[in-house]
Amino acid sequence: MELDVKSDLSEKSRIDQLKMVYLLMSIGGDISHDDLECIKQLAKDMDLPKDILWSTIDECKEILGKFFDEDRRQNLVYENIYSLGKEKNKSERVLSLWLLVDTAFYDEEYSKEEKRLIRKLAGNWEIKDHDSIIIEMEDTADALLDLEKYKEWIKTANYPYDYTNSVVEELDKNKQELANNIALIASIG
Question: Strand, coil or helix: what is 60?
């Protein structure tokens, strides 16, 4: 993710976003080792201390421990994420949606449950033009994933160093432009 996840958000807002991510990742069941590593990295990127990371995870586990039925679990995840975002300003809600979309794409599998939840949140959080904004976010997340894959491939290809380096720099510029577009969408709210 190239968007500054710290931005100007308060610590509480960053913790709320971390909770949203954890809950979204749990929508299909248990949190995997890779999911946990992603959450740890996000907390680090957000400048959240480890004690806050672990207390946030414990709080999410407590929330999720209430239901084992898949439908109820999905409803519980939605209700908790919705509650975390409903009192935020529109810009923060849009940034939270982006974080959720980007997270949903990180494992290269944007599930129908994740998609349904994110679209429902966008509508119920009263994001103006939410359908087109979500489509733009999904397309951006997909493009960022493709750029990152290409970047990793070009680094291992047998091209001269100068060529490889120039391609990597250009890919990084493209990724930053996409992140800037998301920041612009959030600022419009």
Answer: helix
61-68, long-range: CB < 8 A, 24+ apart: 63/23, 64/23, 64/26
Q: The pTM is what?
A: 0.83
Other Cβ atoms within 10 Å of 74 Cβ, number: 17
Answer yes or no: is 6 within a domain: no
pLDDT digits (tens, 9 = 90+) for 40-67: 999 999 999 999 999 999 999 988 887 6
Which structural domain range is residue 38 located in? 11-188
Helices (H), the chain: 11-25, 33-45, 50-64, 70-86, 90-106, 112-124, 130-156, 161-188
Q: How many domains is the chain built from?
A: 1
Contacts of 182 (CB under 8 A, 6+ apart): 3, 98, 137, 140
